[in-house]
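Quick illustration, no need to memorize.
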Amino acid sequence: MTDLPQTNQTSRSREIRQGSLIVTVRDTDMLTPLELEMVCYLLQGFSLSQIACLRHRSIKTVSIQKQQACRKLGCASTATLLLALLDNGIVTLRRAGDGNRA
């Protein structure tokens, strides 16, 4: 397993640094805390099986959490889930050292 990217967490959002990119995941009532945690791992490039291993859960549990997040946001795939997260303002992207969205 590789080292996990640096993550800063507050009660309202989480920042994940991926190289020169900073991903901010805002807490929302649209998704449960566990669904948001799973989304954070997806945004870092982890597969569902890797997420299951990291969270000490079955792959079925993680898969269901992803399916529930997709259903809540009207998505059919991981790619459309990530786009919906951006469109709904749950996730924002910016370059390190830049206040603007990437």
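Helices lie at 33-43, 48-55, 59-73, 78-87.
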